[in-house]
Specification:
D-Maltodextrin-Binding Protein, domain 2, single chain, five-stranded mixed beta sheet, alpha/beta
Length: 255
């Protein structure tokens, strides 16, 4: 009788474990990101396209996971991933304030930050961050650049201006006289200029900010099941090992 009860108990545990695993995989995941060509953006067909969007799709194709991919302003996407279970976000830098709020899957790409302004500005002369403080810089709300510049002594509404939508970064330079510089990846600048029918030669890189490239990650909400996290991590490792990742990078570098 004792053996029979043990068998029943093991069967129940197995059933519950299988049921939990099934529900963990069957729950639909939400992947959120911002408009940031060429990495991710809405194409002319209204679909999300781009280098990292393609990487995410390729990785998820290696898994049984169901998912949706949505584009929002960065601040909203960040809060959704931070507060909502089964929600993941990319591309996000990994730093100490953010570390404890997410499960970090893997870096997807590396980036560099540059102070960019209009090419016809003859009055901008910067060699270091203290020089930059003499000008007015626009950054995305809750982006790492926002918080890093605050740490360096920039003051909001004095020499630091916060915007919600990355779509308007370059337009700020061309339309608002009180904005002198933006902080952006030069790859972003070239693609965003073309995306908005602007001439890339209108803009000039004045100074590189970070000394070494910054890893940008895929990360998920803390309440996302561990088996989902493991599946995502293994999937990204798989496409990096089997050549799919490199093919995607090469494809977008040639555009």
């Amino acid at each position: 009788m004792a053996l029979s009860r043990n068998n029943i108990f093991r069967n129940i545990l197995c059933y519950l474990l299988c049921l939990f695993t099934f529900h963990s995989y069957s729950a639909e995941l939400l992947f959120v990101t911002e408009h940031s060509p060429p990495y991710q953006y809405l194409n002319k067909s209204g679909n999300i396209d781009g280098l990292t969007a393609e990487i995410v799709h390729a990785a998820l194709a290696q898994t049984p996971l169901k998912y949706k991919l949505k584009i929002y302003p960065w601040s909203r996407a960040f809060m959704m991933a931070k507060e909502t279970a089964n929600t993941c976000i990319f591309l996000m830098s990994r730093d100490e304030p953010r570390e404890k709020h997410f499960q970090w899957i893997a870096p997807l790409i590396k980036t560099n930050d540059y102070f960019v302004g209009l090419a016809n500005r003859t009055d901008i002369n910067i060699n270091n961050i203290e020089d930059v403080k003499k000008y007015k810089v626009a950054v995305i709300k809750d982006d790492r650049t926002h918080h890093e510049l605050l740490k360096l002594g920039f003051i909001e509404n004095k020499n630091l201006f916060i915007i919600n939508n990355s779509n308007s970064m370059l337009k700020l330079l061309t339309t608002l006289k009180h904005i002198d510089l933006i902080l952006a990846d030069t790859i972003n600048v070239n693609y965003r200029a073309k995306f908005h029918d602007l001439n890339p030669d209108t803009f000039k890189v004045y100074m590189k900010w970070n000394p070494v490239p910054i890893d940008l990650y895929l990360a998920c909400n803390l309440n996302t099941p561990k088996n989902v996290i493991t599946s995502l991590s293994q999937a990204i490792e798989t496409i990096k090992n089997n050549g799919i990742y490199d093919k995607i990078i090469t494809k977008w570098q040639s555009k």
